[in-house]
Amino acid sequence: VHRNTGISKQLLRLLQMTRTSISPGKKLEPKVAKIEEKSTKPPGSARFYRRKEEVTKSNMPVFLDDNFNVGALCQQLLVAGYVQSYVDFYQLTHRVDPTSVEETGMKQITISESDTKFIRDSLVKAEVSRRQGDTASVYSAFNQLADYYVKNQDWKTAFFFHEKCLEVSQLTNDMRAEMSANHSLGYIYQLMNDFGRACAYHERHEEIAASLDVFEEVAKSNVELYKVYLVLAEREEAHGNFDEALRIYNQCLDSSRKSWDKNSEADANGKIGNLLLKYGEAQRCVPYLRQQSQISADLGNAEGRCRACSALALALDSMSQPDKALAELNTVMTISEEVGDHYLQAQACRSLGTLYSKLGRLQEAVDTLQKHFQLTKKLLLKVPAAESGPATGSPTNKNAPRSNNSPDPQHTVTSHDLDIARAYIGISRGNLLLGQYCVALQGNLTALLDWKLNRTDIATSLKGDGYTTSAASAAVDVVASIDDSESVAS
């Protein structure tokens, strides 16, 4: 054979043909599957390994949806062997509409064709993935269903599927999935106004995140915890539970710090300070109000700083420190004038005028309260023009100063506020002219009472009795002020 190369070639061809004829059903592997790659394994181990073929086949069933019929879809699920999907799908599509009102009558739920098929496919995906042990796909399918029902404001059904997500995450010890499920469940309870249960789920979310040192999740949970704690604290404050409200407000403060939200931290300090001030603990409230003022100043929040300084002035005044209280109110006046906020200016003028009256600086009180009246009148006249406001959907900045033409639902001015401002002016003028009024009372009380009843010319009558023009005018002004105050009170 070695001598005759031609014979050797023929023998090799015969051998190859014989091998292929012995196993005709066996096909040669693709060239890609025969490629061998070098391995990085240490000496003594196999140097080559065979690359595995990628599986791209989908295990999801294919349904023929020629005609849309809920009954036919249920039948398809049973025929295909998806019993659990059939049970859930039937209950979801054959029930009373949860958004219907009892007064209008309970009616059966109506679901569009695309939404019905989405529900069916998601349930089947969850069941198929559960059979294959693919828990991540099970979680994803239930989570998509929960989000769908949240979008449609069906809170109970959304809660049902989020609870399924929580069960899957706990069975597989998937801590991140469990955090997400707890967050979603707490959010659903917030939408249902059940803040007590929402608090429990968000606290569990924070506990898991803290154990894993996932600071992003810690901040995320505390953002919601701040909202929940704030509602619970305000409820306790409204019911007069001082100790419990103070405890929950402190939890608000702690959550705001963990979520790195300076606006929330300033508000929480203000809530604690005002609560302590309300119950007469002025000494304890001062540090919280100063902290609110400092954070608001750092953020450029003029309204927040003005609120803090006003409350701080009230606390300092109750602690017999009127000079420091005046300094805080003057700060409020300066800030409100700089930002051009008429509402803040009006509130600052009223507080400042009241404090001036208390300190006996009556002329300054009259001037300041007169300014308060003018600002209130200007705000009342600008409300109709301001109601048009900016276009809907325009971006707003929470810390930006509010324009003096932009209405705020919490800072609306009514005619009653204008009447109160007018009464403040009357009282301050009466206090200023009280000495001259007493002189007029000693001289001719009958003339004053006659003017009060009949609006006679009291100035002429008093002048005829030998009183000066200033004393007569003072008597008229004081009685007029008292008359205005009585009309407002009535």
Characteristics of this structure?
elongated, single chain, 72% helix, 22 helices, mainly alpha, 1% strand, 490 residues
List the helices and strands and how they pair.
Layout: H1 5-22, H2 31-34, E1 36-38, E2 48-50, H3 70-80, H4 83-93, H5 113-132, H6 135-151, H7 155-171, H8 175-191, H9 195-212, H10 215-238, H11 242-258, H12 262-278, H13 282-299, H14 302-318, H15 322-339, H16 342-359, H17 362-386, H18 415-432, H19 434-443, H20 445-454, H21 458-464, H22 469-489
Antiparallel strand pairs: 1-2
Describe the protein.
This protein is about 70% helix and about 0% strand. It starts with a helix and ends with a helix.
Assess the beta-strand content as a share of residues: under 5%
What is Rg? 40 Å
Overall average residue pLDDT: 74
Largest beta sheet: what is the strand line-up?
1-2
- Sheet having the most strands: 2 strands, antiparallel
Query: Could you name the ranges where pLDDT drops below 50 across 5 or more consecutive residues?
Result: 20-42, 44-58, 384-409
Looking at the structure, what is the overall shape?
A: elongated
Count of DSSP-assigned helices: 22
Topology pattern, helix = H, strand = E: HHEEHHHHHHHHHHHHHHHHHHHH
* Number of DSSP-assigned strands: 2
**Helix percentage range:** over 70%
The secondary structure category is mainly alpha
Question: How far apart are the termini?
Answer: 132 Å
Short synopsis of the structure:
Helix content is 72%, strand content 1%. It is mostly helical and 490 residues long.
